[in-house]
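Give me structure tokens for this 320-residue protein.
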Amino acid sequence: MTLAAALIAVLAATAGCGLVSSSGTFHSAQLPDGSKPLDGAKLVVTSKSFTEGVLLGKITATYLSAAGADVSDLTGAPGSASSRQAQLNGDADILWEYTGTGWVNYHNQTETIADPQVLWQRVHDIEKNDYNLEWMAPANFNDTYAFAAASGTAKRLGVKSLSEVAKLPVADRTFCVDDEFFSRSDGFLPMLEKYGIPYGNPTGVPQSNVTRMDAGVVYTSTAKSAPCNFGMVYTTDGRIKNLDLTVLTDDKKYFLPYSGTAVVRGEIIEKYPVLRELLGNISSKLTDELMQELNGRVDIKGEDPSDVAYEWLVSAGLVK
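Here you go.
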């Protein structure tokens, strides 16, 4: 059994969990002008299993099918390794990735590169030279770590950036984080050092000012400003908008960019160079705010990713 077939079996078995829609399902559509620049092409689109990954996969599968391709949908592969390995093995052709993931997880780099374009170029070059994977131009969204506060709290405290948080009275510097982020080498403690408010220091951030909890609870706790004024979030999470949270600017550029990028196998992009334009049509329209909205429709409203993907493509004028 090929890895692609194995993924189909796994996804079929897990489709009933309700976290993602069934594998292989996306809406039929056409390009607005009725053209089929990918007529005759056979493409396999995969994705990671979390909401945003599935949404990006469904958007891509729907759009490329509308462009005439015969698309096999392997969205929702469990774990980063499954989808990437499928692509490395040649069992999948297109996968949305993140520059930070490529840099840290796949290539074990420790240097923090704050400029999103520079980081993309570095990852692009490694992937092209070593793996014959082509990272398309990055989209305009960055799914990275950040800190947020309830909008009312941010206004009351007068903070819009992490540097302004560092200037608050010690009693107001209260944080909610999950265990992983607390212990990461590029996580919470080095971030506090970067902003001059070291952990465990009575004039920085005393231990009693930090509450460690499940990542999902961080959002609701931050929205209530109890037990913390500031909580760790992911910048494209739908709960930011739903809970009216204000994301604070990382003005010292501590967090590594995680720009969303469509990755295509080299053989496929050589055979179908029009994919650069088609995938660019998608990525040029994706922003943090849009991804928050689309993710929220799935995670909060319970809509099916296939429906959300199709309806957005229609609203963006990319399909009919």
